[in-house]
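Fold in tokens:
===
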Amino acid sequence: MPYTDYPCPTGRPRKSLLSQEEFTPIITISRGSYSHGKEVAEKLCARLGYECVSREIILKASAHFNTPEIKLARAIHDAPSILDRFTFGKERYTAYVQEALLNHLRKDNVVYHGLAGHFFVQGISHAIKVRIIADFEDRVAEEMQREGISSEQASKALSRDDEERRRWSAHLYGIDTRDASLYDLVIHIKPLTTDDAVELIYQAARRPCFQVTAQSMEAVKTLFLAAQVRAALVQEIPNARVTVEKGEIVVSTSGYWAEGKKLTARIDQVIDTEKEGVKVKVRLINKPLKHGV
């Protein structure tokens, strides 16, 4: 069956089958409080028939900390530095969240709305990253109505919430959620309604440049396997850096070269590299020898 190349707004050509319409299988929506992002996500899922994912990710991560999900979610939302109370809490939390999220995304047909979803899908061409924003005054009015509080109270609450979300992403992922370059679409709910936002994302999801290719599917699979490796190693080797380089999973950490076989054996317990068809490279950085020896 013939293929054709279509231009993409981001300059990434993608090949799409001419005879059938397809939709991108992964959509992440970043949002603030009372910006209608959750409403957009739910309406979009209903229209596409996709799974809507949000709090399930923190739920899975909380199990690793032996901490109730609601307690961990509130603690991180109020002060992300709470993770510093756990041994290597930041490293462990990001590893567990990444594994849980990519486990959902690799199944396709998913809309994730929540913090930092776009961070984990950078480089995946069939994922659309969306940011939903709304005027502060409109958000204040919404909170006043829902919570039955004054304008001043609502304004302070939202300002605090925005700052906490910004600190959360900066502390855990080193990103600023307000940076428009992180997204494919930034939609302002003011002149546009939530239904308009759904329509815009729906139409973008049909664009050939966001469709699945064999390469993009392989990229998601490799990212998930790398996340599995990182989550399995983070308790024992929290400083291990797990990356994907040219389709290979690379585990970098400090240690003596003699530890290489031991680390490789540990990775083999996590994933069957032969079955999955991926290569894993261990990159050990020698520790400085004492007394210059």
Notes: The chain is about 45% helix and 20% strand.
